[in-house]
């Protein structure tokens, strides 16, 4: 193709337009290398956009053809096209021909173009591109746009480009057209305002008396009004051309980003010029697109509607739209895209603010429950809706007056009651922390009104107020605790957000102020609350969480020690009154917080704590003596006295060092007595085990923190050894809770006192290291098999036949998972021998839903420790399953049974865990095959050598690991296999020998990653995909027939087939799907712009990552027709005549060019020939 010379605008750095051009038509440049094309000027953005536009207008006034040529090339280059429109092309060719020419010159090597390229430069270019179009129209609005040449040319070009097959042309021209339309809407709005002003001036002048009326002014006003009307008509024609020629087709484009542009801009038009555009004829497009399958398009719809619903004056015009599409908007609050759901909730909130009657109770309830969403932005948006609907005070002054009459200091009493009722009515959700967090941003003043909450809990209701029920009081206390936590910690609850973020200075100050406020209030209120609810375990347990959020310095700084004494007195009373572990642990934690050494109140609290423990310890020792002396004659009072005090001491021993009271001795006596006599109550045994465990841990802490002597180490070793022996004996206890407690403590202590105890320069602690012997390991393993891997029926029977609800089942599963995790840690850290894991791995498939994650993580960690031993453990687990199957079904296995398939599936899953790096796992996989082969030939068939070994079927399981062998390792493993085979085995072809045949075949093939393997036979030919990326043909047949026939046709040497030569493919063009090709052809009877026309035109668009052969609208054609009937179409589309205007159909023949069809046919024939070469 001969070199073509181009013409383009040249811009100087001093903003002067370069008028002179060379005779050959080439653009001139200044000596400083400044940008010379309009595209480069806009891309770099160094010049003010208004000056760039002014220069272009100056050039247009001198030669409008050359100026328009530069503008055309600007749009072409902004699309990423390297071609340039020449002056003779512009003057002599139609737009369709120009676009076809530019399409041929488009660079197809890359799919990127300016609007899609990432980076700050191109992001700025998009902004400059849009600004240039807006400024261009603004500067031309008084003269040039009405010359019937410039705008007709630009609109005609953009309409043609928007119908292009090339995505870059379509995307860029659509954005340009929509921004052009927005600028024209602004011009139309100004014209409308000027018309109104002119009309008003005319009416004013005409209404004057005849003598004072200025006829010349009336004539000027009439002439101006006529001129403005003509301009208005011209602008409306232009807007109609863009809307009908571009928008109505591109808002349903196959590319989501193009659809999003259209919806975003129509929202701008409706807000900017609501008198013209805010009607059902335009709103229906936004309503239909609410069903778009792409989230970004739905998001643009919602944001466009938000801009409209924000203005309450527009609500009357939105009434019909609201009624028609309200259900869809409400349903979008549950959108799978969280960003869309958030904006949908905000839009529903705006609708609620504009008209409370617009939403039904059912609509509101659909949004209410979202305050419990785990996604915080969704929950916060729902919280804003809930606040607007339920918790916003309609008449604050009246409510404050009512509160004063009732003697309340806060007017929020009724709102807090309403919050409590809402929380209780949310029966499916019991997450008060989530509810508080959702309302925190919108209802913070209400949620921080702790004085009002305390008043409702402490004071008696006045006349006209209802008494809070017990359930309501519990809910209010729970909500109060959550608000305190939110204020003190200043971050969302667990499960919301990615973690604690760094607070800003303002947020940090707010947090400190809130913490001081709640501390000063509850230091005085908490003792009174505990006094009122001291007998209610649930309420007390919640109230005792409050001190952990205190600023404890306030006690000493504010001279509030008397309130501290009152708090300690109430806590002591609670400890004496309750035996519930939740309450006792809350008391223990509160003492632990108050005893922090950094606060001056520590000594006062420590004295109170010591007095309490002295009393409990003395009572415990006395009750233990009485219980042991009574023996089998002990009554319920003796048992209760021991159990109640032991529970309290155990709860405190968890957070406090009580070793100086020597609780281990009496606990050990209780355990030994229970083992010897077998009559110790279950709960006493469980608590004694736990208390002894805490005592050992506190002794270990003292030893590790100090410089222990040898006697101290030996003394602790004796204690640990005796306790481990007791726990091991408890594993055979008849009571399940005792066994589970003993098992967990055994696992914990074996982990703590393992070889890792001496790491970190602690070699002196070597005497404390315990290694479990084989008998203990077997007992632990048997416990796991008996109590973890059980069926649901067994589980129900183990709980005394009681019916379990869903919550109890989940709790039971949680306990079993903890048991399995505790034992798995012993395997991972090499405390229990790794082969013990085989009994766990074999249950991977059967119990995948319950324990799959734990078993998989155990497998991964053990492989990191020792790859070879882990592989041996895997094959051992498969061998165990195989042996169990042999015992159940006998030596003649049905290889098609579900049990055999289950073992093979488990082997396949194990093979997948080896990953893709065969070099790293090479030795481990080879060892696995070696052990598998030895197992298969371990026993001879007692019937004689002509019969297969009993375990030969195991080779079929072993086939699942053959793909993980390297090529050279396959030969080695095959050679090892032949050592176990006799000549008779090699000659056998019966079905009973198929496992051996299949395994040998898997070793003889080159492997999927190394070569193509062809299995010849009468019914099957398979060509596998090579690692070089060849196209493949996979002909399916009977797998067993192919394997059998290949072995029947093999020669005696059984040489591995050589790899076929890989032909070099010169093209990656795939044949077109005939069905899709048929969809490219439009129906002859469809009208341009109709729904059917759109369905077929989508086939003309370029291939994209999105499925373009599906309708981009979620609504069917029938639904669209129904919607169209509901809206009155007030638009009249009248395309203005122009020599460059053409119908959209003119571009269609370009995409079925005979030259292009011949090109793809050549590609198709090349692909067919290559496939034939591969088969030859």
UniProtKB/TrEMBL annotation:
Main location: nucleus
Ranges in a coiled coil: 211-241
Domain SCD residues, every copy: 247-332
UniProt keyword DNA repair present: no
SUPFAM superfamilies listed in its UniProt record: ARM repeat (SSF48371)
GO cellular component annotations of the record: chromatin; chromosome, centromeric region; cohesin complex; nucleus
Cited PROSITE patterns: SCD (PS51425)
Signal peptide: none
UniProt keyword list: Cell cycle, Cell division, Chromosome, Chromosome partition, Coiled coil, Nucleus
Origin: domain of life: Eukaryota
Residue ranges of the region described as Disordered: 1074-1094
GO biological process entries: cell division; chromosome segregation; sister chromatid cohesion
Molecular function in Gene Ontology: chromatin binding
Subcellular location: Nucleus; Chromosome; Chromosome, Centromere
Purpose: Component of cohesin complex, a complex required for the cohesion of sister chromatids after DNA replication. The cohesin complex apparently forms a large proteinaceous ring within which sister chromatids can be trapped. At anaphase, the complex is cleaved and dissociates from chromatin, allowing sister chromatids to segregate.
Oligomeric form and interacting partners: Part of the cohesin complex which is composed of a heterodimer between a SMC1 protein (SMC1A or SMC1B) and SMC3, which are attached via their hinge domain, and RAD21 which link them at their heads, and one STAG protein.
Stated family: Belongs to the SCC3 family.
Protein name: Cohesin subunit SA
């Amino acid at each position: 193709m001969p070199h073509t010379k181009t013409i383009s605008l040249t811009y100087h750095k001093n903003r002067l337009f370069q008028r002179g051009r060379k005779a050959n038509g080439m653009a001139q440049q200044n000596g400083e290398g400044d940008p010379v094309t309009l595209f480069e000027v806009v891309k770099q953005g160094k010049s003010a956009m208004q000056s760039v536009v002014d220069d272009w207008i100056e050039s247009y006034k001198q030669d409008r053809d050359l100026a328009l040529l530069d503008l055309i090339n600007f749009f072409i280059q902004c699309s990423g096209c390297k071609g340039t429109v020449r002056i003779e092309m512009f003057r002599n060719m139609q737009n369709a021909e120009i676009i076809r020419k530019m399409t041929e010159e488009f660079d197809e090597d890359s799919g990127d173009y300016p609007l899609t390229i990432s980076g700050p430069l191109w992001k700025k270019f998009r902004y400059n591109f849009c600004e240039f179009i807006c400024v261009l129209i603004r500067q031309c609005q008084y003269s040039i746009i009405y010359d019937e040449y410039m705008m007709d040319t630009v609109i005609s070009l953009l309409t043609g480009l928007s119908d292009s097959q090339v995505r870059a042309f379509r995307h860029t021209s659509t954005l340009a057209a929509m921004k052009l339309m927005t600028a024209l809407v602004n011009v139309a709005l100004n014209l409308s305002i000027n018309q109104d002003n002119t009309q008003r001036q005319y009416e004013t002048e005409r209404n004057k008396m005849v003598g004072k009326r200025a006829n010349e002014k009336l004539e000027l006003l009439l002439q101006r009004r006529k001129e403005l009307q003509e301009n208005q008509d011209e602008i409306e024609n232009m807007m109609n051309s863009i809307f009908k020629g571009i928008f109505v087709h591109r808002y349903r484009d196959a590319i989501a980003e193009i659809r999003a542009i259209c919806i975003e801009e129509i929202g701008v038009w409706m807000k900017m010029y609501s008198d013209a555009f805010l009607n059902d004829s335009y709103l229906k497009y936004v309503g239909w697109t609410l069903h778009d399958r792409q989230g970004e398009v739905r998001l643009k719809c919602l944001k466009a509607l938000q801009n409209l619903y924000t203005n309450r004056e527009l609500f009357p015009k939105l009434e019909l739209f609201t009624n028609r599409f309200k259900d869809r908007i409400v349903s979008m609050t549950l959108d799978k895209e969280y960003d869309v759901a958030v904006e949908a909730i905000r839009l529903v909130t705006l609708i609620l603010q504009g008209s409370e009657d617009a939403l039904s109770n059912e609509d509101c309830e659909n949004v209410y429950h979202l305050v419990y969403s785990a996604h915080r932005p969704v929950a916060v948006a729902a919280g804003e809706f809930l606040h607007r609907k339920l918790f916003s005070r309609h008449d604050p002054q009246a409510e404050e007056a009512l509160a004063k009459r009732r003697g309340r200091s806060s007017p929020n009493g009724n709102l807090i009651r309403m919050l409590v009722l809402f929380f209780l009515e949310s029966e499916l959700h019991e997450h008060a922390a989530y509810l508080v967090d959702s309302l925190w941003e919108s209802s913070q003043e209400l949620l921080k009104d702790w004085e009002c909450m305390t008043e409702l809990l402490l004071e008696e209701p006045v006349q006209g107020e209802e008494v809070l029920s017990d359930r309501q009081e519990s809910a209010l206390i729970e909500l109060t605790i959550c608000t305190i936590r939110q204020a003190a910690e200043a971050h969302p609850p667990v499960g919301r957000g990615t973690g604690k973020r760094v607070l800003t200075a303002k947020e940090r100050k707010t947090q400190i102020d809130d913490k001081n406020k709640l501390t000063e209030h509850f230091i005085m209120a908490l003792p009174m609350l505990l006094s009122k609810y001291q007998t209610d375990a649930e309420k007390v347990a919640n109230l005792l969480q409050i001190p952990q959020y205190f600023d404890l310095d306030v006690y000493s700084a504010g001279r509030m020690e008397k309130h501290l004494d009152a708090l300690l007195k109430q806590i002591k009373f609670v400890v004496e009154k309750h035996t519930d572990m939740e309450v006792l642990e809350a008391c223990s934690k509160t003492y632990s917080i108050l005893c922090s050494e950094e606060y001056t109140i520590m000594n006062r609290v420590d004295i109170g704590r010591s007095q309490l423990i002295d009393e409990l310890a003395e009572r415990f020792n006395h009750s233990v003596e009485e219980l042991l002396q009574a023996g089998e004659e002990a009554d319920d009072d003796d048992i209760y006295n021991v159990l109640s005090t032991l529970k309290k001491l155990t709860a405190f021993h968890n957070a406090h060092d009580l070793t100086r009271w020597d609780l281990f001795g009496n606990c050990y006596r209780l355990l030994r007595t229970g083992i010897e006599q077998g009559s110790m109550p279950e709960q006493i045994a469980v608590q004694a085990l736990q208390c002894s465990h805490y005592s050992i841990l506190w002794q270990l802490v003292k030893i590790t923190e100090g410089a222990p002597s040898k006697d101290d180490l030996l003394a602790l070793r004796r204690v640990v050894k005796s306790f481990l022996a007791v726990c091991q004996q408890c594993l055979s206890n008849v009571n399940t809770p005792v066994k589970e407690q003993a098992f967990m403590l055994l696992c914990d202590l074996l982990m703590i006192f393992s070889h890792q105890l001496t790491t970190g320069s602690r070699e002196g602690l070597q005497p404390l290291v315990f290694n479990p012997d084989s008998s203990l390991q077997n007992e632990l393993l048997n416990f796991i098999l008996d109590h973890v891997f059980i069926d649901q029926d067994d589980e129900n029977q183990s709980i005394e036949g009681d019916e379990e609800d869903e919550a109890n089942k989940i709790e039971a599963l949680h306990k079993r998972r903890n048991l399995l995790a505790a034992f798995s840690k012993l395997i991972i850290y090499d405390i229990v021998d790794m082969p013990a894991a085989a009994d766990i791995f074999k249950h991977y498939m059967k119990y995948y839903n319950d324990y799959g994650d734990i078993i998989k993580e155990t497998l991964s960690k053990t492989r990191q420790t020792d790859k070879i031993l882990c592989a041996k453990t895997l094959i051992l687990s498969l061998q165990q399953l195989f042996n169990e199957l042999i015992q159940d079904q006998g030596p003649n296995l049905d290889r098609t049974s579900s049990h055999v398939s289950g073992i093979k599936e488990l082997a396949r899953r194990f093979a997948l865990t080896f990953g893709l790096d065969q070099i790293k796992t090479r030795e481990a996989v080879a060892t696995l095959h070696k052990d598998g082969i030895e197992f298969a030939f371990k026993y001879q068939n007692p019937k004689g050598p002509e019969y297969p070994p009993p375990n030969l079927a195991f080779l079929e399981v072993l086939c699942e690991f053959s793909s993980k062998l390297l090529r050279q390792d396959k030969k080695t493993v095959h050679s090892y296999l032949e050592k176990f085979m006799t000549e008779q085995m090699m000659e056998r072809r019966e079905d009973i020998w198929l496992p051996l045949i299949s395994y040998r075949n898997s070793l003889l093939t080159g492997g999927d990653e190394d070569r193509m393997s062809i299995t010849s036979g009468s019914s099957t030919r398979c060509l596998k995909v090579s690692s070089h990326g060849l196209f493949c043909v996979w002909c399916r047949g009977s797998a067993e027939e192919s394997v059998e026939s290949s072995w029947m046709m093999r020669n005696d040497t059984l040489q591995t087939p050589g790899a076929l030569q890989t032909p070099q493919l010169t093209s990656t063009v795939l044949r077109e799907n005939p069905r899709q090709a048929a969809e490219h052809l439009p129906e002859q009877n469809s009208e341009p712009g109709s729904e059917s026309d759109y369905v077929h035109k989508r086939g003309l668009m370029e291939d994209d990552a999105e499925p373009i052969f599906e309708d981009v609208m979620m609504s069917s054609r029938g639904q669209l027709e129904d919607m169209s009937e509901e809206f009155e179409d007030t638009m009249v589309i009248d395309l203005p005549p122009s020599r460059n205007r053409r119908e959209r159909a003119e571009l269609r023949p370009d995409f079925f060019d005979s030259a292009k069809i011949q090109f793809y046919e050549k590609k198709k024939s090349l692909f067919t020939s290559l496939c034939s070469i591969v088969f030859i």
